[in-house]
Each structure stands twice: as structure tokens, then as C-alpha cells.
Specification:
By secondary structure, the chain is of the alpha/beta class. It has nine helices and twelve strands. The strands form two sheets. It has a ten-stranded mixed β-sheet with strand order 3-2-1-4-5-12-9-6-7-8, with helices on both faces. Strands 10-11 form a two-stranded antiparallel sheet. Strand 4, helix 4 and strand 5 form a beta-alpha-beta unit. Helix 7 packs parallel to helix 8. It is globular and about 60 Å long.
Length: 298
Amino acid sequence: MQMLHLKRILVPIDFSDNSMNALETATSIAKRHDASVKLVYVNDNDNKFYPHLHSNGAHDAMRTLGTLARCVKDDGNIECSFSFFSGSITSCILQDIADESIDLIVMGKNGNAGKRELYAGSCAYDVSKKALCPVLLVPAGKSWSQFKNILFPVRPSVSMLEKYTTVKEIINKNDATLHIMNLRNPDYINELHIISKLVDLLKRKFEEDNIKTKISYYFRDDKFAEKILKTVQEATTKHDLLIISAEHNIPANTFYLSPYAQQIIHQANIPVLVIKPETIPQSKEIELELLEKQISAN
């Protein structure tokens, strides 16, 4: 997996407060990375039972999209385009990601499709699960102009170095401190010595890349999501970005969001960056074996 060079950022917009917070967050990212922004509004005609909900909004939506695009250009000197689609919200967003070679999606965790406290909206959840590029989910209540203290939970996985390489540019552009939280499932004894080697390798890479770091460990149990969320809540220096990855469903050969990832996405009160790994192991045992070889090679 190559370093994430942000040149094209897509922002799904439904004109809710949360989607506007996501847009402000995206424009801040675009300024730092010299990236362009594309706004996407989807007229959800996937609902056959309530056609009156989307019969008259196309013209108003197009006009508002144009106004927003001009504001992004004028206020931030950022190249900004927009598109209007009709159809399934998730499907339209995913198709536009592929058509436009999008590098990053920034979207509100909740929108006009419905909001439940502590839960991401269905569209945000589906996009983060299915999109091939990284997805940044922005919680309600505020926009985020920078990421200075990034929490990066690490489990023994061959995709771990991929994920670090992917987000290295974001770390550098924000001059951020990276908090590595090493997690070990107590059911896998073999993970312990691999984690020790992995930490040594990471320390070398952080020193080479001039990354400011903090390293912690959690080996007590496998309640990783609860520990991560508690760390976010109780940290003296508040975290402002949390990085997680989608998991691979080996029998189905597809990606899914594990209960661990789901809980974090739904309950985190800071932005969550969801990344999909490129390396796909065949089993846990093979993954640990590959990881040990990867560490030895570095």
C-alpha cells in the first residue's frame, strides 16, 4: 500500500449540519494537501413508498451546491466541483468514487437520513464498509481544522505497516503526535513476541520519518473497542483522530466491519478514519507467520 497522496477529496452533502461540518473539515484537509474537493448530492429515489419526499428538491439542491462550491473556491482558494445524482445514496457515492479516482471520502457520521445518539447513519456506515479508498467519518457537533494527536490502535497484522504508510502524509502535514496503542488478544499467545519485534520495527520507522510518537499497550483482554473509546474519553491531551481498518471475511472474500470496528465507528466522538488493507491473509496463523517474515525482512 502506497502513501496516501490526497489530491481528490469527495464530500457527500445533504445540507445537514453534520455534512457541513464534514465539508469544513474536508476544506481544511484540502488546504494542507493542496487537494481538490468534489461535492456530491444524491436525490434518494430508492424509496418507492414516499416519492413525495424527493419530487421537488433537484433545482434547489443544484443551486445550493453551486453556492457551496463557489464559497469553497473563494474562501479557501480550493478547486471545487459538484455533482447531483438520483438513486441509491450509497450506490451513487461508490460509483462516483470509482469514476473520479477519489483518494479520500470525508462525510458526516449522521445526516438527514436519520440520527440516533451514538450511532452512525446507515449511509455513512455502508460507505465506510464498501468504499475502496479511506473514509473519514466526522461526528456531529463541530468541524476539525487539524489533527494534532492521532490514536492508532495496532494489532499484530500484516496490514499494519501498510496502514502506517498510508497515513504517514496526514501525520506529517499536521505535524501530529502518533499514539500507537498495541493490542494483543490473550487467546493468541504467539502474538506477544511478535508485538515486541513489531514495536522495535515501528520505533525505527518513526525515527527515520521524524514522527513524534507515544506508545502504549493493552493485553488484559480482547475488549479492544471499549479500551480505545475509554482512552479517547480520558486522555489528558485530547485525541482528534482515530484510525481503524476494515477486516477481511476470508470465506466470503469480501470486506466487513468487525464488531470492534462497528463499535468504534458508532460511539467515537472524534473523527474516525477507516482504511482497507491490501494484504489479505488466509488465516490467523498464516497472518502471524507472514507478519514475522515481514518484520525480519525490515
